[in-house]
Amino acid sequence: MAAEFVERDWHVTGTVRDAAAHTPLHDLADEHPDRLDIETVDITDPDGITALRGRLADRTFDVLFVNAGTTNDESTRIGDVTTDEFVRVMVTNALSPMRVVETLGDLVPPTGLIGAMTSGQGSITNNTTGYREVYRGSKAALNMFLRSVAARETESGRAFLLMAPGWVRTELGGPGARLTIEESVPNLVEVLLAKRDRPGIEYLDYLGRTVPW
Questions:
Q1: Cα–Cα distance between 150 and 164 in angstroms, integer?
Q2: Could you read off the pLDDT of 84-111 as tens digits, one per residue?
Q3: How many CB atoms lie within 10 A of CB 198?
Q4: How distant, in Å, are the alpha carbons of 5, 102, 178, 184 from that of 93?
Q5: What is the pLDDT of residues 56-88, one digit of tens each?
């Protein structure tokens, strides 16, 4: 996503979790040093989010987009998951992204957009098979939490977006996923940018189709 925005002449501030690691984001920054800044934050650390807010205090962002996700064994039923595993997935996928939104949201003007990467598996309506129950629940929780923020800000006219990227071949999606990153991301960014002109919250897939809550 960072590469796609840079390609479209945006100035991007991206984050990594490990300050000592060299990532593809660093390679992109080497290619475009005038259009990409890198910050370090682990969003499961509330103090780290607060520190990031302090470092960005003099910045204004047209888009704040939070992308975080982890999972557990997809075959584990909700009644069988350990408390530690449940907490780990829920904190990473639902609570931490919302802490970022609540802490950094005031850096986005009312004409901007606040979004989060969710999943089609966060749809309660579309859950007809079970499986991946903890992951599904975490993304459904994320959807509810961002919808709550949007409900509190109805008068602001701000745009909010929950984005379902499709089943993509990433470390999380696995090698058997239907879509490549190259097939998903350009469409995803196009949908995100178009949403800026529509206030309120929507739950959309990478082709701009509404996903049922």
A1: 18
A2: 999 999 999 999 999 999 999 999 999 9
A3: 12
A4: 23, 15, 22, 20
A5: 999 999 999 999 999 899 899 999 999 999 999
- Cα distances (Å, whole numbers) of residue 43 to 20, 142, 205: 17, 14, 24
Distance CA 10, CA 2 (A): 9
The two tokens of residue 140 are 């459904």
Residue by residue, DSSP assigns the chain as: -HHHHHHTT--EEEEES-TT---HHHHHHHH-TTTEEEEE--TT-HHHHHHHHHHTTT---SEEEE-------TT--TTTS-HHHHHHHHIIIIIHHHHHHHHHGGGS-TTSEEEEE--GGG-STT--S--SHHHHHHHHHHHHHHHHHHHHTGGGT-EEEEEE--SB-STTT-TT-SB-HHHHHHHHHHHHHHHTTS-EEEEEETTSPBPP-
Question: Can you tell me the mean pLDDT for 35-46?
Answer: 97
Residues 170/116/60/13 CA torsion (nearest 10 deg): -10
In this structure, which amino acid lies at residue 47?
A: D
Token pair 């309506």 in the structure block, residue: 125
Model confidence pLDDT, tens digit, residues 157-177:
899 999 998 765 566 556 666
